[in-house]
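User: ok so my PI wants both of these folded by tonight, can you help

Assistant: No problem, let's get them done. Here's the first:
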Amino acid sequence: MSTGAAVAAGTTEIDETDLRRVRRMTGIVRDDLIGPEGLRFDHAGLMLFPRSVDGALSLLEGEGLPVVRKLRSVVVRDRLVRRYGLVDPDIVIAHLDAGEGRTVELFLLEDCPWRVAADERARERETHLAYEARPGDLKVLTSLREQGLIPDGGGFNADEGPTGRTVFYFRDPQGGDRLEIVIAGHQEDDLARHVDNGDERRRMLGLLTGAWTTQALHAAASLGIADRLYGRVLGLDVLAEETACPADRLARLVRYLEQLGVVHRVGELIGLTPLGATLASESPQSLHGVALLYGGLFFRSFGRLPETIRSGVSGFELAHGIAPFAHLDGNPADAAVFQRAMADQCRDVFDSVVTSLDLTGVGTVTDLGGGTGVLLGRILDHAPQITGVLFDTPATVETVRSDLGARFGPRISLIGGDLFTEVPGGDLVILSRILHDWDDAACAGLLACCRRAMEPGARLAVIERVLPDQPEQRSLAAAWDVHMMVNNVGGRERTLPEYRDMLGAAGFTFVSRVELPLDVHLIEAVAD
C-alpha cells in the first residue's frame, strides 16, 4: 500500500494526526540512537486513539510496520485511570517491527472520550524513547536525576517477557520526548523510590494532607457510603437519602473519594472501585473495621505524636487518659471495633498462616490472645482432626463463647485469663500479633509463661511484622513501629535477630521463618 493509500484508508481506521505521529517516531527509531550511560536502545512509544485497533494495525502493516506481539497495558492503563478517572480502560500494547531489531510501541485505546484523546495528543504524555538497563545496575536513574530530568512515574507489567518488566519514566522540564528506562524483572524497591521522586513540594503537600485522606476513608466507612454502594451503583440523591447526608456536602466528599480511586462514576451514577470495595463491611477483602479504628480511636492518639516522642508516654494515654487495653476493657463498643479491625487486617495473612503451618502430628492448637477466634477457627476448619483452645481476656472470650461453641462443639475450649500469669499449653501454641504489643521485659515474662506451659518439643508460632535488617529497605513494619509507640504502652516491631534472641532467652530454639502477605512473617520455634 502506498503512503497516499494509507492516509485514505486511515480516515476510517486511524486519525491522520495519529498516523503522522507514528511516522515521526518511526523515523526516530530508525536513526542510530545511543542512550544515556551507553544504554541500548529498546523502543519508541506513543499512544493512539484508533476507531479500530485491528484496523489500525492492519493499516500500519501496510506502512512497513508489522505487528510483533500484542498484550494488555498495565502501567499506562493505571496512569490514564488516575489522570482522567477512566473506568478500567482496555488499552492494547502493540510492538511493531521497524527493522534492524528496533520496535515502535503503541498504546491503542478504542472509543476514547474526545477530550482525553485531544489532551493526550496535545501533551504527548505517553510518547517516549526507551532504553534498556541491566538488572542490578540502575546507576542511570541517579545520573538522570542529577542531570535535571524529573521522575515521571513508572510501573511493572508482569506480561512483558518471562519475568515481566519494570519501567521508569523521566521528563525533561525543558520539553521534548519523555525518557523510559526498562529493566527485566520486578524492581520493586527501586520503582518505589523512583515514583516518590519528582515535584517535592507537591509530594510534601500530599504527605501533609494524609490525615485528610484517612478521615475521608473513615467517613466512607462510618457513614455507610461504602456499604450502600457495595455491589450496586446509586445516584447522588439516593445515596444522600440512604446515608442521611446533605447532598451538596456528600457530593464534595464523593469528588475527593473519586480522586483517591475509591469511587467512580457511571454516567450520573456512583459506584465503588475494587479499591473502594475494601471499605464495605460485607466485602471478603474488607478493611471496614480498620478504617473505623484508624480514623477514629487511634487517629486521635496520633495527634499527640510529638509529645509521645519527647515524654515517652504513649499518644493513646495522652489523648484518652488511660492505657489502651484498659480503655478497651471498659468500653465494649470500642473493643468490638478493635477486634473487627484486627480480624479484617489479617484476613489474607491468616489464610497464608493456615497453609504454611505443618499440622502433622498436632493434636491441640492453642491461640494465646486469639481475640474472637478468627485464626483458630480457620485452622480448625482446615484440619478437622485437631482440637483448639482460645485464650484471651475473660470479656473477649465471653463475647464469642456461644458462637464458637455452636460452630465447633467439643473441639474448642475457651479460657479467659491473663497472658502474664498462667496460660494453657498445646502441641502448637500461637502468638499472633501479641509480642509487638509489649516491651522487651514484658515479652520475656510472657514467653517464660508460655514455656512453663509447654512440653519439650512443643512448637511455638509467632506471627508478627518484622523490621528489615537494612533500615532503607521498605516495609510496612516501619510505620507500624511508630503506630505501636503511639497506640500502645511499650509496644514495638522488631527485627528477626531480635526475635531469635528473645526466643532463645526464654527456652525456645528458632526453627524457621516464612514470609506472609503485608510484610507479616511466621516465625516458628521449638520448646527446648
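One down. Here's the second:
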Amino acid sequence: MLRREPRLKPTTLFEYLQERYPGQYPQVLRTVQRRVRTWKALHGEAPEVMFELRHEPGVMGISDFTELKGVEITISGKPFEHLLYHYRLAYSGWRYAQVIQGGESFIALSEGLQNALFASGGAPQEHRTDSLSAAYRNTGGKGHKPLTRLYDDLCHHYRLRPTRNNKGIAHENGAIESPHGHLKNRITQALYLRGSRDFASVSDYQAFINSIVAKLNQQHQAKFAEEQKHLQPLPPKRVADYEVLTARVSSRSTIDVRCILYTVPSRLIGRQLELHLYHDRICGYLERQVVVELPRLRVTAKDKRRARCINYRHVIEGLRRKPRAFIYCTWQQDLLPNAPYRQLWQQLQADFDIDSAAVLMVEALYIAATQDKESAVAEYLVAQLAAGTLTLSTLQRHFQLLKETTLPTVQVQQHDLKDYDQLLQPDAAIESLPESQPPPQTLAPLPHAPALGDPGTSGHARTLVLRSILAGTFANWRWTDAGVCASNVPCKRLNCPPPKRFPTLTGNMSRSSIPLL
C-alpha cells in the first residue's frame, strides 16, 4: 500500500487494518507508526535536501511583510490593524522593522525599504523579495516586464538588482522567514513583560519596536561594521514614497479621497490641494506649502464602502457662528471627539432645551480646540452639570473667554457756573474789547441789479417778496443750451443751435405777474 501511495499516514493504515481484520490489531497504533517510519527511511522517496548558503558582505538585502498573529495591539483602547515591514542584511543579520498601515502596497514597500537603507548607511547589490504584487506583475502575459514600473524605478535609483524566490517555495526566502519568528517572539515576550498591549499612539508603538530591534542588532555589531564597508553609497535624494492626487475643497470644508470623506481647515474652502498619500497619512499642499496633514483611513468592513474622518477643529469656527447646525448635522456624532463628549451631549439634551444644549456643546468644543483643553473642558462640564450650575457665561468666564470689565474712576471738578452769565449780555461782550483794537471795518456794497426778493430785516424770519415784471421783456429773447441770444435770429458768430429744451416766449402777453425767485 505504501509503494502504491506513499502519502498514506500511519493512522489511516491502522484504521484500515482494524476494519479489514476485526480484533486482530487491538491498540497497536504506535507499532504501526514506527514501522511506517522505518519503511519510508529504507524504501521511500528521498526528501528534499537543504543546502547551507554562504552570503557575501554587501551583496543581498531581503524585504518582507509579516503579521503579528495571536497578539492584539490597541492604540488608545482601539484595535490597531497593521503589518510589520522587515528588512534584513543576509550577511551580518542586521535588521530594520517598521509599523505599516494599509497592507502590502508599493507605498509601504518604498517607504520601509528607503528608511532601512538610510538607517544601515548604504545599499546592497541585490534586493530579494517574494512575489509581492507591489513589486511584480504576477498575472503573467506576454510583452510585459515582470517588474512594476514604480518598483523598477526604485531599484534603479539605488542601483539594486531585484530578485525574488520561486512562487510557493517559502524556504527559498529562509534568510528572512526564520528571523520573522525570532522578531515576533521577542515582541511577544516584551509585551508580556510590559504588562499591557495598549499604546498611546502609533509613534509610541514604533518606538517600542525600535527598542526590541536595537537589542537584536547588538548581537551583530561586528559583522555589521564589516558589511557596511561593502555597501553602495546612497544617492542624495529619496524616491517619492507617496502617491499624488488632487482634490478641491467643497463648501462643507471636506475632500473625498478613495471613498473616505475628510474635513480640512475651513479657510481652504474652494481651493484645489495637491495631496500626497502615504501609507499612514495624507499631506495637503497649497502652492508647495503644507497646509494640512490628515490620518489616512481605510474601509475594513466588508459591508461598507465609505467612511468619514471628521475633525471638529477644522470647522469649529464656522460651527460657532451657526450653533444650531450642530443639531441637524449629519456628522454630529463624528464631531464629538470621544465617548465622554457623546455622553455629555446626551446629558445636555436632557437638562436643557435643544437650542441651548447645542450652544453649550459648540462653545465647549470651541474652547477645547482653541485652548487645547479637551479633557479639561469635559471635566468642567461634568462637574457643572452635576451641580446644576452650568451656563454659557460661567463656561466662558471659567476659561477666560468672558472677562469682567471694570470701568476706571473718573474725577470731575465742576467749574463755577457764573462764567456763563457773560454770554447772556451781548453788549457787555462788545464793550469788553480792548481800546487798542480798531473797530471792525465794513466793505461798501458792490453795485448790482435790484434784488427780486427782499430778505427782510434781521429781527424777523426771512420772507420772500414777489415782484411783477413785464412778460414782453422776454418776447424777443431766446434760450439755448449755449446761453441766451439777444434776438430770435440765429447767431452766426456764436453758431447757436436751434432751441431744444426751452420753448421761445412769443406772443402778446398782458401785463401780469410772473413769480420768480
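The first strand starts at residue 60 and ends at 66. The CA atoms of residues 10 and 16 lie 10 Å apart. Good luck tonight!
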